[in-house]
Amino acid sequence: MDDDDEAPGSPVATGNRGRAWVVPLALFALVAIAGGAGSLWVALSSTPSPPDPAAAFLSAGDAALALDHEDAYEDAIGHYTKVLAHREHDVHALTGLARAHALYAQDRRFEASALERSAADDPALRGEAAASQREATEHAAEARGFAEHAARQATGDADAEVALSDALRLAGDLPLARSRLERAHTLSSPPSAEALRVEALIASDLAGSLSAARDLAERAVGEDPSLVRARMLLARAEIVSGHASAARVQLQAVLARVPAHPGAVALGAALAAQDPSTGDTAVPGVVPAEAGGSAAASAPTIAAQGARSPATPGGPPAAAGAPASTGPRGYDALVREATARLENGDLARARTMFEQALRERPGASEAVAGLGYVMLNEGNARGAVQNFEQAASRGYADALIGLGDAHRRAGQSAEALAAYERYLERNPSGPRASIATRQVQLLRAQVGRGGASPEIRPAAAAPAEPPASPAGGPSDTPVTRSDELPAARESTGTPVRDVPAVDSEP
User: Does residue 114 register a pLDDT over 70?
Assistant: First the structure.
Protein backbone atom coordinates (compact mmCIF):
# COMPACT_ATOMS: atom_id res chain seq x y z
CA MET A 1 0.00 0.00 0.00
CA ASP A 2 1.30 3.45 -0.96
CA ASP A 3 2.11 5.82 1.75
CA ASP A 4 -0.01 8.40 -0.01
CA ASP A 5 -3.11 6.20 0.08
CA GLU A 6 -2.82 5.53 3.78
CA ALA A 7 -1.85 9.07 4.95
CA PRO A 8 -4.68 11.16 6.32
CA GLY A 9 -5.60 14.43 4.52
CA SER A 10 -3.42 17.45 5.34
CA PRO A 11 -5.26 19.87 7.56
CA VAL A 12 -3.41 22.80 5.94
CA ALA A 13 -4.44 21.78 2.48
CA THR A 14 -8.04 21.30 3.58
CA GLY A 15 -8.13 24.75 5.21
CA ASN A 16 -6.76 26.46 2.13
CA ARG A 17 -9.40 24.84 -0.05
CA GLY A 18 -12.13 26.09 2.32
CA ARG A 19 -10.81 29.62 2.37
CA ALA A 20 -10.66 29.67 -1.40
CA TRP A 21 -14.45 29.97 -1.50
CA VAL A 22 -14.46 32.97 0.80
CA VAL A 23 -12.78 35.37 -1.64
CA PRO A 24 -15.30 34.94 -4.50
CA LEU A 25 -18.17 35.19 -2.06
CA ALA A 26 -16.75 38.41 -0.57
CA LEU A 27 -16.19 39.88 -4.01
CA PHE A 28 -19.72 39.01 -5.01
CA ALA A 29 -21.09 40.67 -1.89
CA LEU A 30 -19.06 43.82 -2.50
CA VAL A 31 -20.27 44.03 -6.08
CA ALA A 32 -23.86 43.64 -4.95
CA ILE A 33 -23.48 46.29 -2.25
CA ALA A 34 -21.78 48.64 -4.66
CA GLY A 35 -24.52 48.12 -7.20
CA GLY A 36 -27.22 48.82 -4.63
CA ALA A 37 -25.46 51.92 -3.39
CA GLY A 38 -25.06 53.15 -6.92
CA SER A 39 -28.73 52.62 -7.61
CA LEU A 40 -29.57 54.43 -4.40
CA TRP A 41 -27.30 57.35 -5.37
CA VAL A 42 -28.87 57.53 -8.81
CA ALA A 43 -32.32 57.53 -7.24
CA LEU A 44 -31.40 60.25 -4.77
CA SER A 45 -29.65 62.40 -7.35
CA SER A 46 -32.59 62.13 -9.75
CA THR A 47 -35.07 63.36 -7.10
CA PRO A 48 -35.96 66.97 -8.04
CA SER A 49 -34.99 69.61 -5.49
CA PRO A 50 -37.86 71.57 -3.97
CA PRO A 51 -38.76 74.70 -5.96
CA ASP A 52 -37.33 78.00 -4.77
CA PRO A 53 -40.32 80.17 -3.78
CA ALA A 54 -38.23 83.32 -4.07
CA ALA A 55 -37.62 82.68 -7.77
CA ALA A 56 -41.35 82.65 -8.48
CA PHE A 57 -41.84 85.94 -6.63
CA LEU A 58 -38.92 87.49 -8.52
CA SER A 59 -40.45 86.52 -11.85
CA ALA A 60 -43.84 87.84 -10.81
CA GLY A 61 -42.28 91.11 -9.63
CA ASP A 62 -40.42 91.58 -12.91
CA ALA A 63 -43.58 90.88 -14.90
CA ALA A 64 -45.60 93.39 -12.90
CA LEU A 65 -42.90 96.06 -13.13
CA ALA A 66 -42.80 95.71 -16.91
CA LEU A 67 -46.46 96.85 -17.13
CA ASP A 68 -45.43 100.30 -15.88
CA HIS A 69 -48.49 101.74 -14.19
CA GLU A 70 -49.26 102.43 -10.55
CA ASP A 71 -51.35 99.34 -9.82
CA ALA A 72 -48.61 97.20 -11.35
CA TYR A 73 -45.96 98.98 -9.28
CA GLU A 74 -47.89 98.10 -6.12
CA ASP A 75 -48.07 94.47 -7.25
CA ALA A 76 -44.34 94.46 -7.97
CA ILE A 77 -43.59 95.88 -4.53
CA GLY A 78 -45.63 93.09 -2.96
CA HIS A 79 -43.83 90.35 -4.91
CA TYR A 80 -40.34 91.71 -4.30
CA THR A 81 -41.09 92.11 -0.60
CA LYS A 82 -41.96 88.41 -0.45
CA VAL A 83 -38.60 87.61 -2.00
CA LEU A 84 -36.87 89.35 0.91
CA ALA A 85 -38.70 87.04 3.31
CA HIS A 86 -36.67 84.20 1.78
CA ARG A 87 -33.52 86.08 0.76
CA GLU A 88 -33.03 89.11 2.96
CA HIS A 89 -30.26 90.68 0.86
CA ASP A 90 -31.31 89.65 -2.65
CA VAL A 91 -29.91 92.40 -4.92
CA HIS A 92 -32.40 91.70 -7.71
CA ALA A 93 -35.35 92.14 -5.34
CA LEU A 94 -33.84 95.20 -3.62
CA THR A 95 -33.20 96.85 -6.98
CA GLY A 96 -36.72 95.99 -8.11
CA LEU A 97 -38.19 97.52 -4.97
CA ALA A 98 -36.14 100.68 -5.43
CA ARG A 99 -37.24 100.96 -9.04
CA ALA A 100 -40.93 100.31 -8.31
CA HIS A 101 -41.01 102.92 -5.54
CA ALA A 102 -39.16 105.44 -7.72
CA LEU A 103 -41.51 104.93 -10.63
CA TYR A 104 -44.51 105.30 -8.34
CA ALA A 105 -43.00 108.49 -6.90
CA GLN A 106 -42.46 109.93 -10.37
CA ASP A 107 -46.04 109.19 -11.38
CA ARG A 108 -47.26 110.91 -8.21
CA ARG A 109 -45.13 113.94 -9.08
CA PHE A 110 -46.65 114.07 -12.54
CA GLU A 111 -50.11 113.91 -10.98
CA ALA A 112 -49.30 116.57 -8.36
CA SER A 113 -48.04 118.91 -11.06
CA ALA A 114 -51.17 118.42 -13.14
CA LEU A 115 -53.46 119.04 -10.17
CA GLU A 116 -51.55 122.12 -9.09
CA ARG A 117 -51.80 123.58 -12.58
CA SER A 118 -55.54 122.96 -12.61
CA ALA A 119 -55.97 124.48 -9.15
CA ALA A 120 -56.10 127.96 -10.66
CA ASP A 121 -59.62 127.11 -11.85
CA ASP A 122 -60.51 124.82 -8.95
CA PRO A 123 -58.69 125.68 -5.68
CA ALA A 124 -59.97 122.48 -4.06
CA LEU A 125 -57.50 120.57 -6.22
CA ARG A 126 -54.61 121.98 -4.20
CA GLY A 127 -55.40 119.52 -1.42
CA GLU A 128 -55.26 116.62 -3.87
CA ALA A 129 -52.00 117.97 -5.27
CA ALA A 130 -50.53 118.11 -1.76
CA ALA A 131 -51.61 114.52 -1.10
CA SER A 132 -50.00 113.35 -4.35
CA GLN A 133 -46.80 115.18 -3.51
CA ARG A 134 -46.73 113.55 -0.06
CA GLU A 135 -47.04 110.14 -1.65
CA ALA A 136 -44.23 111.01 -4.03
CA THR A 137 -41.99 112.02 -1.14
CA GLU A 138 -42.74 108.84 0.78
CA HIS A 139 -42.10 106.53 -2.15
CA ALA A 140 -38.93 108.42 -3.05
CA ALA A 141 -37.62 107.82 0.47
CA GLU A 142 -38.44 104.11 0.16
CA ALA A 143 -36.69 103.99 -3.22
CA ARG A 144 -33.53 105.47 -1.79
CA GLY A 145 -33.45 103.08 1.15
CA PHE A 146 -33.76 100.00 -1.04
CA ALA A 147 -31.33 101.34 -3.66
CA GLU A 148 -28.67 102.05 -1.04
CA HIS A 149 -29.12 98.55 0.38
CA ALA A 150 -28.73 97.03 -3.10
CA ALA A 151 -25.63 99.11 -3.83
CA ARG A 152 -24.03 97.99 -0.58
CA GLN A 153 -24.72 94.34 -1.34
CA ALA A 154 -23.34 94.45 -4.89
CA THR A 155 -20.73 97.12 -5.45
CA GLY A 156 -20.34 96.27 -9.13
CA ASP A 157 -23.99 95.94 -10.09
CA ALA A 158 -24.91 98.47 -12.79
CA ASP A 159 -28.66 98.06 -12.27
CA ALA A 160 -28.33 98.86 -8.58
CA GLU A 161 -26.32 101.99 -9.44
CA VAL A 162 -28.98 103.13 -11.92
CA ALA A 163 -31.70 102.61 -9.31
CA LEU A 164 -29.68 104.59 -6.77
CA SER A 165 -29.16 107.38 -9.29
CA ASP A 166 -32.91 107.65 -9.87
CA ALA A 167 -33.62 107.67 -6.14
CA LEU A 168 -31.05 110.44 -5.59
CA ARG A 169 -32.65 112.42 -8.40
CA LEU A 170 -36.02 112.16 -6.71
CA ALA A 171 -34.41 113.32 -3.47
CA GLY A 172 -33.20 116.45 -5.29
CA ASP A 173 -29.48 115.66 -5.32
CA LEU A 174 -28.90 115.94 -9.05
CA PRO A 175 -25.07 116.17 -8.93
CA LEU A 176 -24.76 112.96 -6.95
CA ALA A 177 -27.44 111.33 -9.10
CA ARG A 178 -25.36 112.07 -12.18
CA SER A 179 -22.24 110.75 -10.48
CA ARG A 180 -23.86 107.41 -9.65
CA LEU A 181 -25.22 107.17 -13.17
CA GLU A 182 -21.75 107.72 -14.61
CA ARG A 183 -20.53 104.92 -12.39
CA ALA A 184 -23.25 102.69 -13.84
CA HIS A 185 -22.09 103.60 -17.34
CA THR A 186 -18.56 102.43 -16.49
CA LEU A 187 -19.95 99.14 -15.21
CA SER A 188 -22.14 98.49 -18.23
CA SER A 189 -21.38 99.82 -21.68
CA PRO A 190 -23.29 100.72 -23.76
CA PRO A 191 -25.82 102.08 -21.24
CA SER A 192 -29.05 100.18 -20.77
CA ALA A 193 -32.43 101.58 -21.77
CA GLU A 194 -33.23 102.09 -18.09
CA ALA A 195 -30.01 104.05 -17.57
CA LEU A 196 -30.85 106.26 -20.56
CA ARG A 197 -34.36 106.84 -19.19
CA VAL A 198 -32.99 107.95 -15.82
CA GLU A 199 -30.45 110.17 -17.58
CA ALA A 200 -33.32 111.73 -19.54
CA LEU A 201 -35.16 112.55 -16.32
CA ILE A 202 -32.02 114.09 -14.81
CA ALA A 203 -31.69 116.27 -17.90
CA SER A 204 -35.34 117.24 -17.58
CA ASP A 205 -34.95 118.17 -13.91
CA LEU A 206 -31.85 120.25 -14.65
CA ALA A 207 -33.58 122.11 -17.47
CA GLY A 208 -36.92 122.46 -15.71
CA SER A 209 -38.84 121.04 -18.69
CA LEU A 210 -39.64 117.60 -20.02
CA SER A 211 -38.63 118.76 -23.50
CA ALA A 212 -35.01 118.31 -22.39
CA ALA A 213 -35.67 114.59 -21.91
CA ARG A 214 -36.70 114.00 -25.50
CA ASP A 215 -33.40 112.94 -27.13
CA LEU A 216 -32.32 110.60 -24.33
CA ALA A 217 -35.80 109.12 -24.03
CA GLU A 218 -35.73 108.42 -27.76
CA ARG A 219 -32.39 106.64 -27.35
CA ALA A 220 -33.87 104.59 -24.49
CA VAL A 221 -36.75 103.48 -26.70
CA GLY A 222 -34.30 102.57 -29.45
CA GLU A 223 -32.24 100.52 -27.00
CA ASP A 224 -35.29 98.61 -25.72
CA PRO A 225 -38.55 99.17 -27.62
CA SER A 226 -40.41 97.03 -25.06
CA LEU A 227 -39.63 99.38 -22.14
CA VAL A 228 -43.04 100.95 -21.59
CA ARG A 229 -41.86 103.62 -19.16
CA ALA A 230 -39.33 104.87 -21.70
CA ARG A 231 -42.07 105.23 -24.32
CA MET A 232 -44.32 107.04 -21.83
CA LEU A 233 -41.54 109.48 -21.01
CA LEU A 234 -40.87 110.07 -24.69
CA ALA A 235 -44.58 110.66 -25.32
CA ARG A 236 -44.68 113.33 -22.59
CA ALA A 237 -41.52 114.95 -23.94
CA GLU A 238 -42.95 115.00 -27.47
CA ILE A 239 -46.14 116.68 -26.24
CA VAL A 240 -44.24 119.35 -24.34
CA SER A 241 -42.07 119.86 -27.44
CA GLY A 242 -45.20 120.36 -29.54
CA HIS A 243 -45.08 117.11 -31.53
CA ALA A 244 -48.53 115.64 -31.05
CA SER A 245 -48.38 112.98 -33.76
CA ALA A 246 -45.02 111.70 -32.52
CA ALA A 247 -46.51 111.39 -29.05
CA ARG A 248 -49.45 109.42 -30.46
CA VAL A 249 -47.04 106.95 -32.05
CA GLN A 250 -45.50 106.22 -28.66
CA LEU A 251 -48.87 105.93 -26.94
CA GLN A 252 -50.13 103.51 -29.58
CA ALA A 253 -47.03 101.37 -29.05
CA VAL A 254 -47.66 101.35 -25.30
CA LEU A 255 -51.30 100.32 -25.76
CA ALA A 256 -50.30 97.58 -28.16
CA ARG A 257 -48.06 96.13 -25.47
CA VAL A 258 -50.24 96.90 -22.42
CA PRO A 259 -53.88 97.28 -23.49
CA ALA A 260 -55.80 99.91 -21.51
CA HIS A 261 -52.59 101.24 -19.94
CA PRO A 262 -53.99 103.98 -17.63
CA GLY A 263 -51.29 106.54 -18.34
CA ALA A 264 -51.40 106.05 -22.10
CA VAL A 265 -55.19 106.26 -22.11
CA ALA A 266 -55.12 109.49 -20.09
CA LEU A 267 -52.49 111.13 -22.27
CA GLY A 268 -54.33 110.04 -25.39
CA ALA A 269 -57.55 111.56 -24.08
CA ALA A 270 -55.75 114.83 -23.32
CA LEU A 271 -54.33 114.89 -26.83
CA ALA A 272 -57.74 114.21 -28.35
CA ALA A 273 -59.27 117.02 -26.32
CA GLN A 274 -56.52 119.48 -27.20
CA ASP A 275 -55.84 118.53 -30.81
CA PRO A 276 -58.11 115.98 -32.52
CA SER A 277 -56.12 116.19 -35.76
CA THR A 278 -53.62 113.51 -36.67
CA GLY A 279 -51.08 115.69 -38.38
CA ASP A 280 -47.78 116.69 -36.84
CA THR A 281 -49.07 120.00 -35.51
CA ALA A 282 -48.53 121.48 -32.12
CA VAL A 283 -51.10 120.83 -29.46
CA PRO A 284 -52.98 124.09 -28.86
CA GLY A 285 -51.58 125.82 -25.82
CA VAL A 286 -48.13 124.30 -26.19
CA VAL A 287 -45.27 126.62 -27.09
CA PRO A 288 -42.52 124.49 -28.67
CA ALA A 289 -39.34 124.79 -26.66
CA GLU A 290 -37.30 125.36 -29.81
CA ALA A 291 -39.40 128.39 -30.69
CA GLY A 292 -38.87 130.14 -27.40
CA GLY A 293 -41.13 130.48 -24.42
CA SER A 294 -41.70 128.04 -21.63
CA ALA A 295 -43.06 124.76 -22.85
CA ALA A 296 -43.55 123.66 -19.28
CA ALA A 297 -45.75 126.65 -18.59
CA SER A 298 -47.86 126.33 -21.72
CA ALA A 299 -48.40 122.62 -22.22
CA PRO A 300 -51.72 120.88 -21.62
CA THR A 301 -52.22 120.01 -18.00
CA ILE A 302 -51.67 116.28 -18.25
CA ALA A 303 -48.84 116.58 -20.73
CA ALA A 304 -46.75 118.99 -18.74
CA GLN A 305 -46.64 116.86 -15.63
CA GLY A 306 -43.21 116.57 -14.19
CA ALA A 307 -41.86 119.91 -15.40
CA ARG A 308 -40.48 121.53 -12.28
CA SER A 309 -38.57 124.65 -11.53
CA PRO A 310 -34.80 124.09 -11.80
CA ALA A 311 -34.32 126.32 -8.79
CA THR A 312 -36.03 123.80 -6.52
CA PRO A 313 -35.41 120.36 -8.06
CA GLY A 314 -36.59 118.52 -4.99
CA GLY A 315 -39.42 120.81 -4.04
CA PRO A 316 -43.12 120.73 -4.75
CA PRO A 317 -44.40 121.58 -8.22
CA ALA A 318 -45.06 125.24 -8.69
CA ALA A 319 -48.14 126.53 -10.43
CA ALA A 320 -47.09 127.53 -13.92
CA GLY A 321 -47.06 131.23 -14.52
CA ALA A 322 -48.09 132.04 -10.97
CA PRO A 323 -46.92 135.50 -10.02
CA ALA A 324 -44.89 136.04 -6.91
CA SER A 325 -47.15 136.90 -4.01
CA THR A 326 -47.12 140.50 -2.91
CA GLY A 327 -48.94 142.36 -0.21
CA PRO A 328 -50.83 140.76 2.71
CA ARG A 329 -51.15 136.98 2.67
CA GLY A 330 -53.76 134.83 4.35
CA TYR A 331 -53.33 131.72 6.44
CA ASP A 332 -53.44 129.28 3.51
CA ALA A 333 -50.84 131.18 1.50
CA LEU A 334 -48.56 131.46 4.51
CA VAL A 335 -48.68 127.73 5.22
CA ARG A 336 -48.03 126.88 1.57
CA GLU A 337 -45.03 129.19 1.41
CA ALA A 338 -43.74 127.98 4.78
CA THR A 339 -43.95 124.41 3.49
CA ALA A 340 -41.95 125.31 0.39
CA ARG A 341 -39.30 126.97 2.57
CA LEU A 342 -39.19 123.92 4.79
CA GLU A 343 -38.71 121.58 1.86
CA ASN A 344 -35.86 123.74 0.56
CA GLY A 345 -34.10 123.64 3.94
CA ASP A 346 -34.78 127.29 4.88
CA LEU A 347 -35.76 126.44 8.45
CA ALA A 348 -35.54 129.96 9.85
CA ARG A 349 -37.88 131.41 7.23
CA ALA A 350 -40.22 128.41 7.50
CA ARG A 351 -40.48 128.89 11.26
CA THR A 352 -41.24 132.61 10.85
CA MET A 353 -43.99 131.95 8.34
CA PHE A 354 -45.62 129.12 10.31
CA GLU A 355 -45.64 131.40 13.36
CA GLN A 356 -47.19 134.18 11.30
CA ALA A 357 -49.84 131.72 10.08
CA LEU A 358 -50.64 130.87 13.69
CA ARG A 359 -51.16 134.54 14.41
CA GLU A 360 -53.66 134.57 11.58
CA ARG A 361 -55.39 131.42 12.87
CA PRO A 362 -54.32 130.54 16.44
CA GLY A 363 -53.99 126.83 17.17
CA ALA A 364 -54.52 125.74 13.54
CA SER A 365 -53.38 122.13 13.27
CA GLU A 366 -51.57 122.41 9.92
CA ALA A 367 -49.32 125.24 11.12
CA VAL A 368 -48.74 123.61 14.51
CA ALA A 369 -47.66 120.39 12.77
CA GLY A 370 -45.52 122.42 10.36
CA LEU A 371 -43.65 123.93 13.30
CA GLY A 372 -43.23 120.38 14.60
CA TYR A 373 -41.39 119.46 11.41
CA VAL A 374 -39.23 122.57 11.71
CA MET A 375 -38.25 121.48 15.22
CA LEU A 376 -37.59 117.94 14.05
CA ASN A 377 -35.24 119.23 11.34
CA GLU A 378 -33.54 121.44 13.91
CA GLY A 379 -32.86 118.38 16.07
CA ASN A 380 -35.44 119.26 18.73
CA ALA A 381 -37.34 115.97 18.73
CA ARG A 382 -38.91 116.52 22.16
CA GLY A 383 -40.26 119.93 21.18
CA ALA A 384 -41.60 118.41 17.97
CA VAL A 385 -43.41 115.75 19.99
CA GLN A 386 -45.36 118.46 21.85
CA ASN A 387 -46.45 120.15 18.62
CA PHE A 388 -47.49 116.92 16.95
CA GLU A 389 -49.43 115.82 20.03
CA GLN A 390 -51.24 119.17 20.08
CA ALA A 391 -52.21 118.86 16.40
CA ALA A 392 -53.23 115.21 16.78
CA SER A 393 -55.39 116.01 19.80
CA ARG A 394 -57.44 118.32 17.59
CA GLY A 395 -58.23 115.43 15.25
CA TYR A 396 -55.47 116.06 12.71
CA ALA A 397 -54.60 112.43 11.94
CA ASP A 398 -51.55 113.13 9.78
CA ALA A 399 -49.81 114.70 12.78
CA LEU A 400 -49.56 111.16 14.18
CA ILE A 401 -47.05 110.32 11.44
CA GLY A 402 -44.90 113.25 12.55
CA LEU A 403 -45.38 112.18 16.17
CA GLY A 404 -44.14 108.69 15.37
CA ASP A 405 -41.15 110.10 13.52
CA ALA A 406 -40.30 112.41 16.42
CA HIS A 407 -40.45 109.55 18.93
CA ARG A 408 -38.22 107.46 16.68
CA ARG A 409 -35.80 110.37 16.50
CA ALA A 410 -35.77 110.49 20.30
CA GLY A 411 -35.16 106.73 20.50
CA GLN A 412 -38.61 106.01 21.96
CA SER A 413 -39.66 102.93 20.01
CA ALA A 414 -42.73 102.04 22.06
CA GLU A 415 -44.15 105.57 21.82
CA ALA A 416 -43.41 105.70 18.09
CA LEU A 417 -45.20 102.39 17.61
CA ALA A 418 -48.25 103.68 19.46
CA ALA A 419 -48.38 106.81 17.29
CA TYR A 420 -48.25 104.87 14.01
CA GLU A 421 -50.90 102.45 15.28
CA ARG A 422 -53.14 105.37 16.22
CA TYR A 423 -52.78 106.75 12.70
CA LEU A 424 -53.87 103.40 11.21
CA GLU A 425 -56.82 103.23 13.60
CA ARG A 426 -58.01 106.68 12.57
CA ASN A 427 -57.11 106.57 8.91
CA PRO A 428 -56.57 102.95 7.78
CA SER A 429 -56.78 103.83 4.08
CA GLY A 430 -55.11 107.23 4.33
CA PRO A 431 -52.37 108.42 1.99
CA ARG A 432 -49.67 107.50 4.51
CA ALA A 433 -51.11 104.17 5.62
CA SER A 434 -48.46 102.15 3.78
CA ILE A 435 -45.66 104.00 5.54
CA ALA A 436 -47.37 103.67 8.92
CA THR A 437 -47.90 99.94 8.35
CA ARG A 438 -44.25 99.40 7.51
CA GLN A 439 -43.11 101.30 10.60
CA VAL A 440 -45.51 99.33 12.78
CA GLN A 441 -43.99 96.07 11.51
CA LEU A 442 -40.43 97.27 12.10
CA LEU A 443 -41.13 98.76 15.50
CA ARG A 444 -43.05 95.75 16.79
CA ALA A 445 -39.97 93.66 16.10
CA GLN A 446 -37.72 96.23 17.79
CA VAL A 447 -39.92 96.62 20.83
CA GLY A 448 -40.17 92.85 21.13
CA ARG A 449 -36.37 92.59 21.14
CA GLY A 450 -36.03 95.58 23.42
CA GLY A 451 -33.81 97.26 20.85
CA ALA A 452 -33.53 100.95 20.18
CA SER A 453 -35.16 102.45 17.15
CA PRO A 454 -32.95 103.29 14.20
CA GLU A 455 -31.86 106.87 13.82
CA ILE A 456 -33.77 108.82 11.22
CA ARG A 457 -33.05 112.04 9.51
CA PRO A 458 -36.24 113.95 8.85
CA ALA A 459 -36.94 115.52 5.54
CA ALA A 460 -38.57 118.89 5.42
CA ALA A 461 -42.30 118.63 5.09
CA ALA A 462 -45.53 118.49 6.97
CA PRO A 463 -48.23 115.97 6.16
CA ALA A 464 -51.45 117.83 5.54
CA GLU A 465 -54.51 116.87 3.61
CA PRO A 466 -56.27 120.26 3.46
CA PRO A 467 -55.13 122.68 0.73
CA ALA A 468 -53.04 124.68 3.13
CA SER A 469 -51.22 121.75 4.57
CA PRO A 470 -47.48 121.22 4.19
CA ALA A 471 -46.57 118.55 1.71
CA GLY A 472 -44.35 115.60 2.30
CA GLY A 473 -42.92 114.45 5.60
CA PRO A 474 -39.76 113.24 7.21
CA SER A 475 -37.88 110.40 5.69
CA ASP A 476 -39.00 106.99 6.86
CA THR A 477 -35.70 105.26 6.16
CA PRO A 478 -32.71 105.06 8.51
CA VAL A 479 -29.77 107.30 7.72
CA THR A 480 -27.05 105.65 5.67
CA ARG A 481 -23.52 106.65 6.57
CA SER A 482 -21.31 107.84 3.76
CA ASP A 483 -18.85 104.98 4.21
CA GLU A 484 -21.54 102.32 3.80
CA LEU A 485 -22.06 102.87 0.07
CA PRO A 486 -19.74 102.00 -2.81
CA ALA A 487 -18.09 105.19 -3.97
CA ALA A 488 -19.05 107.06 -7.09
CA ARG A 489 -16.48 108.77 -9.25
CA GLU A 490 -17.29 112.39 -8.55
CA SER A 491 -19.86 114.71 -7.12
CA THR A 492 -20.38 118.43 -7.08
CA GLY A 493 -22.64 120.52 -4.98
CA THR A 494 -23.99 119.93 -1.53
CA PRO A 495 -26.76 117.40 -0.94
CA VAL A 496 -30.02 118.93 0.19
CA ARG A 497 -30.70 118.91 3.90
CA ASP A 498 -32.88 115.82 3.90
CA VAL A 499 -30.44 113.73 1.85
CA PRO A 500 -27.54 112.20 3.79
CA ALA A 501 -24.26 112.82 2.03
CA VAL A 502 -22.56 109.94 0.27
CA ASP A 503 -18.82 109.75 -0.20
CA SER A 504 -18.30 110.27 -3.90
CA GLU A 505 -14.62 109.39 -4.29
CA PRO A 506 -13.81 105.92 -5.73
Answer: yes
User: Where does a domain end: 309, 339, 373?
Assistant: 309
The number of folded domains in the chain is: 3
Sign of CA dihedral 144, 456, 425, 471: negative
Is the same domain home to 153 and 69?
Answer: yes
Per-residue pLDDT reduced to its tens digit, 179-209: 999 999 898 888 999 999 999 999 999 988 8
Task: Quote the CA–CA distance of 203 and 209 in Å, as a whole number.
Answer: 9
pLDDT of residue 269: 87
The beta strand positions in 201-265, using DSSP E, are none
Catalogue the E-assigned strands of 73-163: none
String of DSSP letters for 266-335:
HHHHHHHHH----SS-PPTT---GGGSS-HHHHS-TTTTTT---TT-TTSPPPPTTPPPP-S---HHHHH
Please say whether the beta carbons of 108 and 130 come within 8 A.
no
The C-alpha torsion from 123 through 128 and 132 to 134, rounded to 10°, is: 90
Q: Looking at the structure, tell me whether residues 194 and 206 fall in a common domain.
A: yes
Q: Are residues 149 and 197 in the same domain?
A: no
Q: What is the pLDDT of residue 297?
A: 31
Q: Give the C-alpha separation, 209 to 297, whole Å.
A: 9
Note whether 210 and 243 are within 8 A (CB): no
Count Cβ atoms within 10 A of the Cβ of residue 386 and give its class: 0-12 exposed, 13-18 middle, 19 or more buried.
middle
**d(Cα 330, Cα 337) in Å, to the nearest integer?**
11
User: Quick check: helix, strand or coil at residue 478?
Assistant: strand
What gap in Å lies between CA 67 and CA 284, rounded to an integer?
Answer: 30
Classify 159 as helix, strand or coil.
helix
For helices 244-257 and 262-274, the axis angle rounded to 10 degrees is: 150
pLDDT at 34: 52
**Full residue range of the structural domain in which residue 135 is found:** 50-188
